[in-house]
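Hello again, I could really use a second opinion on something today. My current little project is about how a certain protein chain folds up. You're getting the sequence in one-letter code plus the fold written as tokens. Here's the protein in full, and shout if anything looks odd to you:
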Amino acid sequence: MEYEIEADESASTAVVRAVSAVEGVDQRSLRPLAEVLDPDALDALFGSRGDGTPRPGGRLTFVYSKCWVTVENGEYLTLRPIDPRIHNRRPDSIDSDIR
């Protein structure tokens, strides 16, 4: 699944919203994102610079709940459900591409 991060939406909020949608659960039932990574650091990594200009490029992939989550340029998320048989494989090596 691909998710476009809204202009006024933080990367951390987008991750929680998108994962809850993919898994079909309420956001409050998910493990807190802060137990996986620092949400403020994620937002700072992909947020605007102090002068308001956007940061150039970047990609971060991590596991949250039952999904591989990739944040690209702070603009898009790609979510791929984790198959228990291939949990330790990188998401770019997963055969089924969900879009």
Q: What stands out?
A: The chain has a mean pLDDT of 84.
